[in-house]
Amino acid sequence: MIAWVIYDIKEDDVRGKVAKCCKQAGLYRVQYSVFLGTIDENQKDTLQLRLEGLIDEETDSVYIFPMSKSELKATVLLGKAFDKKMVTDEVKALFL
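Structure (tokenized):
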């Protein structure tokens, strides 16, 4: 499946750990607090458990949005959309 991970985290060190977990899960950073990539159900569950152990549920929020390839292709991107310095060819290929 394709998954978006979007977060708003108060503490810098926790934010860094969440980003590291997303990268370790094989996701690609497309904006500072947004990751996108292909993961399977087990990887998604593992990522969810790791992130739950890091965040403060009173102040932080993390969204994991799974979607199909056809849903991704129907996604509307307006304006700058992605930080071009961060987006890799692997991410671009997801939209083809």
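The first strand starts at residue 2 and ends at 8. The longest helix spans residues 41-54.
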